[in-house]
């Protein structure tokens, strides 16, 4: 089709897609409704603003998330390059200063020739090639249009945002710096609890008041992002085997905590800390009260308190093909979390893939979908090959990949998946006539425990 590609939504998926298209000579109009119309979770008008965690998960090259990052880097990913430029220490993870990250993405896109950024809400589907990257907080008007088009109800689940605490307000005496098993250096500020303190904290968590959910919406939490109080209600030890697990951490005096809260830097200045795994839908006064009982938190000042927002996604196996096109209307593609991928990294990866597919079409070249032996292809495999009856969002993991061709010892399995993916992506790019950036191969790198 002639005319620019219309991308609706300036989050990670939309930004990555726009970048991939524009740098390949395809005209793009990127629509972003903020700051004219905001959402319950966003605070700025920057593109690619991170509203939940500031982490893009593991950067271990043999971890599925680390492998996906490197596959994206082979195609000059804007999101991964910006994340590395704005990185803050986070052990084996790639975490960012969220302000610097979003500003870098916004500045880079604004300077690209052939890319126009339009501010304002889009309530109708534009003509021509369209990429809907409206994210988990799709506006009601666009959600209705998509629902009408698909002829089916959307699915909903609730995603939770973790609190951010001002480091200057903490009493550092009972806290200590360390990463689990010493990996990554002293990147986390740890809040240790003995058994008595943990049990008292657990009692406060389960008894605290939560924000009520709307009667017309179902509370279906994504298992990978459960609120801390929901975990606590599952059992007295559930948080201690989840985000509060003490394994791999020893205090400077040699003591081993019974449980621990890890705080991850939100900026290079170490002034703000994300409470790792402490996403919450407790009422805000309750959060201040309950979290204030933690060691060192008596005078804690919170930059942001936890909250819950509705995430919207379609039943992808019923509606999408492997190139992210709607079967009902192939000129429209879906990108990001609205497809049913979960996470910043995975959302950006769908935008990258669509950018490659659409640019090939515009240049009248055939481009096969990514093979399911690659991380990029495994995401599409999850979205198109899952059972339509119980489809749920998922982060990238090796369970989404095509099975290995032969049995491999457990200790070698990650390496086998990563090495196979690397070779498959190289062959795919050669066949497509696409040039790959120089990125270190994952084979031979040590996998994290």
List descriptors.
449 residues; alpha/beta; FAD/NAD(P)-binding domain; Elongation Factor Tu (Ef-tu), domain 3; 2 domains; six-stranded antiparallel β-sheet; 16 strands; disordered C terminus
The end-to-end distance, rounded to whole angstroms, is 48 Å
CATH superfamily of the largest domain: FAD/NAD(P)-binding domain
Backbone CA Rg: 22 Å
Q: Which CATH architecture of the largest domain?
A: 3-Layer(bba) Sandwich
- Number of self-contained structural domains: 2
What is the β-strand count? 16
Largest sheet: 6 strands, antiparallel
| SS field, number of helical segments | 12
- Give me the oligomer status: single chain
Query: SSE string, helix = H, strand = E?
Result: EHEEHHEEHEEHEEEEHHEEHEEHEHHH
Topology-level CATH name of the largest domain: FAD/NAD(P)-binding domain
**Widest beta sheet: strand line-up:** 10-11-12-13-9-14
The amount of beta strand, in percent, is 15-25%
State mean pLDDT (0 to 100 scale).
90
Helix content: 25-40%
- Low-pLDDT parts are 445-449
Shape: globular
* CATH class category label of the largest domain: Alpha Beta
What class, by secondary structure content? alpha/beta
Describe this structure in words.
- The protein has 449 residues and is of the alpha/beta class.
- It has 2 domains: 5-154 and 314-432, 3-Layer(bba) Sandwich (FAD/NAD(P)-binding domain), CATH 3.50.50; 160-308, Elongation Factor Tu (Ef-tu), domain 3 (Beta Barrel).
- It is built from 12 helices and 16 strands.
- The protein has helices at 12-22, 64-73, 78-85, 98-110, 140-150, 195-207, 228-233, 284-291, 316-319, 344-362, 375-385, 413-432; strands at residues 5-8, 28-32, 55-58, 87-88, 93-96, 115-119, 130-132, 155-161, 164-166, 176-177, 188-193, 259-265, 272-275, 302-304, 307-313, 332-334.
- The protein is globular and about 65 Å long.
- The N and C termini lie far apart (48 Å).
């Amino acid at each position: 089709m002639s005319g620019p590609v219309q991308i609706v939504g300036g989050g990670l998926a939309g930004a990555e897609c726009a970048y991939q298209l524009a740098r390949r000579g395809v005209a793009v109009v990127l629509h972003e409704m903020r700051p004219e119309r905001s959402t319950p979770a966003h605070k700025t008008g920057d593109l690619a603003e991170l509203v939940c965690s500031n982490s893009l998960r593991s950067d271990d090259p043999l971890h599925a998330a680390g492998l996906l990052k490197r596959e994206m880097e082979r195609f000059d990913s804007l999101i991964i390059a910006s994340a590395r430029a704005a990185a803050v220490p986070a052990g084996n993870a790639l975490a960012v200063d969220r302000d610097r990250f979003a500003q870098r993405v916004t500045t880079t896109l604004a300077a690209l020739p052939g890319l126009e950024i339009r501010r304002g809400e889009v309530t109708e589907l534009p003509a021509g090639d369209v990429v809907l990257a409206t994210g988990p907080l799709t506006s009601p008007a666009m959600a209705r249009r998509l629902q009408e088009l698909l002829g089916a109800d959307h699915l909903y689940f609730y995603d939770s945002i973790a609190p951010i605490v001002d480091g200057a307000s903490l009493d550092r005496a009972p806290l200590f710096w360390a990463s689990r098993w010493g990996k990554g250096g002293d990147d986390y500020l740890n809040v240790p609890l003995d058994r008595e303190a943990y049990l008292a904290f657990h009692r406060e968590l389960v008894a605290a008041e939560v924000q009520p959910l709307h009667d017309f919406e179902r509370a279906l939490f994504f298992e990978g992002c459960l609120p801390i109080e929901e975990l606590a209600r599952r059992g007295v030890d559930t948080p201690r085997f989840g985000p509060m697990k003490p394994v791999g951490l020893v205090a400077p005096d040699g003591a081993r905590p019974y449980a621990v809260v890890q705080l991850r830097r939100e900026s290079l200045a170490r002034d703000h800390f994300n409470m790792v795994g402490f996403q919450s839908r407790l009422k805000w006064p309750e959060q201040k009260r309950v979290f204030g009982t933690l060691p060192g938190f008596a005078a804690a000042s919170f930059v942001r308190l936890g909250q819950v927002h509705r995430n919207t996604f379609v039943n992808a196996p019923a509606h999408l093909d492997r190139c992210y096109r709607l079967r009902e209307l192939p000129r429209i593609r879906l990108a990001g979390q609205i497809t049913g991928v979960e996470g910043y990294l995975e959302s950006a990866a769908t935008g990258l893939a669509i950018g490659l597919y659409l640019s090939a079409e515009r240049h009248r070249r055939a481009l096969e979908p990514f093979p399911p032996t690659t991380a990029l292809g495994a995401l599409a495999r999850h979205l198109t090959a899952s059972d339509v009856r119980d489809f749920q969002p998922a982060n990238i993991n090796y369970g989404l990949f095509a099975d290995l061709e032969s049995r491999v010892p457990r200790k070698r399995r990650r390496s086998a998946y990563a090495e196979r993916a690397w070779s498959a992506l190289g062959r795919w790019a050669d066949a497509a006539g696409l040039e790959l950036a120089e990125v270190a191969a994952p084979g031979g790198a040590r996998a994290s425990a």
